[in-house]
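ingest -> validate -> predict -> emit
validate: passed (alphabet ok, no gaps, 394 aa)
predict: started
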Amino acid sequence: MKITAVEVHSVKVDRELKSFSGTAGTPGTFVGMSHGKHETDYGWTKEYSTLYSRKVESLMVKISTDTGIVGWGEAQVPVAPEAPQAIVRQVLTSLLLDRNPLDNGVLWRQMYNSLRGRGHRDSFMMDAIAAVDSALWDIAGKHYGKPVYQLLGGACHDTLPLYYSGLTGSTVEEKCACAADAVRQGYKAIKVYIGKGIREDIAMMKAVRETVGEEIELMADALWMYSVHEALRLAVELEKLGVGLFEAPIVMEDVQGHAQLTQATKLAIATGETERTRHQFLPFLKARALDVVQPDMGRTGISEGRRILELAETFNIPAAIHMAIGQCVYFGLSSHVAAATPNLLWLEMNPTALEMANHFQREPWKVENGRLKVPDRPGIGVDVDEEKLQAFYC
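emit:
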């Protein structure tokens, strides 16, 4: 079997800004950056430091073979997917054409090594590799007639435990109402986006706790907004509310700061969505600077994501796999890796994002009682409706 074509597209889908909170959404008051005739979908929020888009943006890769098997991959690129798109077209495609797609390990190393010596071991380079890599796994599953989770060693979980991410609403009352609805749907864990100031954060978490009761696992995501000292002060109060996990409390580069937090608080300190390789996770693990790892399969790809999770297992560290906003292929590949992960605590789930992603697949995925059953169809189990998707190619 040989690769005959590699197609790559930036996908940008309009959305209702109020429907998304955190999770690659617009968690605060969105302010666009358009200047005169220069129009852009990008802008800032008043509350957070990360650039956001008015649209749901991602990178989609379709790899065709001479046997007729087609594989799909997707990278979670919420801003500027044109950058990894160019890498796939100008660098990776020439490495892939006429090659056997079942040699995904060999191909991954060649893609990674192609620009490694020039310092491109992260960011858009890894996003590009991630999308290609996942498409190769999809091909392998279809070739062998097996779901990807079986190729990864089998399902460790019959259904995936999910945590509800991205409470909708602009007020505390609206977010609490959303949290109550999540509990009615059967979710046992809910993540709340904070980072707006210690006093305001405590008030938010207290209101949600009073709404959902003591039996629901609460998580807090500060989106890297605090200093170590501030995060420690906030952690004390979060402990009192029975919060179990504190995500992205400080800037992602501060390994020692994370280590200080893990030693000083009973909260599980978690981060990792920004990191793409095992090499980036290793310093955190060696320093015992994380209690929970959170790699994103849309940024690591299936191959490297699997290695990261196995590395974490070596250090006896569990995983809450990060899954932000993207399209159906992203949800599929993330779910298959989660199913094959023995040290899995949770898989993130934004129901609004899943509803949008389901629009682009012929057999929508369903969440029941806060859990997801991964389809046992060959590959990543996603039947992409390309005709619908093409309307959003850029």
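The chain has 13 helices and 16 strands.
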